[in-house]
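Action item from last week, closing it out:
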Amino acid sequence: MSDYSTARRNMVDGQVRPSSVTDWRIIDAMRTVPRDGFVPPSLRDMSYLDLDLNVAAPGEPPRCLLRPAVTARLLQAADLHSNDHVLVVGCATGYLAALAAKLAGRVTATENQPALAEQGRDMLKRLGGFGNIELQTAPAEHGAPDRAPFDVIILNGATEIVPLQLYQQLRLGGRLVGIFGRSQPPRAEIVIRSEGDFGSRILFDVAAPVLPGLQKLPEFAF
């Protein structure tokens, strides 16, 4: 694998830190975890640009690594602690899951495309030091009920629906961070589970590719 350390440092200094990301744990993780390792060879020279990168095979529905600054801002909003159990939904090849694993105690990650999930497992094994990640093949909307409850859930993409199945997998006081495309403009939000309810707060305006399974169903006209 080529040395992209300079590009990785420039990504952090030119994209992440100017986006009001002040958590040094996130900055250190993004300086350490090689984004270039989680994309196909054809995209490696684009790894550290300000882009959502589609890592799905040709002919497959798009699956993306979110833009670096967006990834960092979602992680900062999630406020991960060293004893948290985190669910990363729609992890693609596992980049966001790897970053979360640097901050949290345990990470469960799901991806609906088996080939991408396998690539993610292989990359995490090659990197080493990520024994606290379990990467499952599962639809985004299902989450990982067998591993619930979670302290934090992070969506690696947008949702056009209210993902109630995911909400139910939060621990009391747990939080879900993701991009909601139910209104225009789309917005990143944090949802917090309280006794008998779920409260939400808008974080910032941002668009992102919608996760398969979390699309709005088409409306039929008669």
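Closing note: The chain has six helices and nine strands.
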